Amino acid sequence: HPPNMRTPAVMIVGLVLCPCGLLLTLTGTLAPNWRQVSLIPDQPSDLILEQGIWDLCRERQSTHDRLCGQEDELGYFKEVPVQVARGLMPSSLVLTVLGLVVAALGVRCWQKKPQHTVAGASGLVLLLSGLLSLVPASWYTHELQVLPAPSGATLAVGYSLVLSYLGSCLEILGGLALTLSFHRCCKKC
Hints:
This protein is about 55% helix and about 10% strand. It is an alpha+beta fold. The chain has a single domain, classed as Butyryl-CoA Dehydrogenase, subunit A, domain 3, CATH 1.20.140. The chain starts with 8 loop residues before the first helix and ends with a helix. One of its GO terms (cellular component) is bicellular tight junction.
């Protein structure tokens, strides 16, 4: 009877979730909105400060005037959670791209059978990349209220942090799915 020519579902799931996770993590890394600071005393009520891991922005909501590249007067960028995020988020992105390249080699697209060992190894790399971006997002969230901000201001989670969380989770799930490829290798043994 002829060999099964279909790509296993776990590989397809991994190859769909991980690039989606990469896009979300990339957006979360680059966009300057890990935290929003609003209702700052002695400032207009519609002023919002957006703090990311690379940039600080001010936006007036009534006029949508946005100015980035603000001076870091409070020492926000010197804080350990921000420094760790600056190191781990780009490392996670590089590892995700590497994992996707390895996954493309392991998942059958141009060959008769998928290479389960290679696909499983790519799953481990992608799982690690998801964890590398989940750690700074979690730590930053834990320290959200403690990081420097004007006194009396209201602090809230920004969309970049949410996107980083979602991207991390998709990479972890996709990596786990690809790691299940090892199951086929163990069956053969």
